[in-house]
Inverse folding.
């Protein structure tokens, strides 16, 4: 369980780098679900090219709760190539 200070009432947005996904994807998911349930933003920087391929399953679980996803040109390209979208 995350520290209650992280999930306090004063927070309006959560900004995560992608690297915590390598060690604590469940904690990221917990914060993302909390943000969604409490009308707060959850944003994430993809951070590194390997996250979209090596941690695809973890990222796929997290994506429904991500309000803003961003990254540089390379990580964005690899993200798009790793996932199939019904647009």
């Amino acid at each position: 369980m995350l520290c209650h200070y992280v999930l306090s009432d004063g927070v309006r947005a959560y900004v995560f780098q992608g690297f915590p996904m390598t060690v604590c994807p469940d904690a990221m998911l917990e914060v993302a679900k909390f943000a969604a349930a409490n009308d707060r933003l959850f944003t994430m920087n993809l951070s590194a090219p390997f996250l979209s391929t090596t941690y695809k399953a973890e990222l796929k679980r997290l994506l429904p709760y991500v309000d803003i996803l961003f990254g540089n040109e390379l990580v964005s390209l690899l993200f798009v190539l790793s996932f199939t979208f019904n647009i």
The first strand starts at residue 13 and ends at 17.
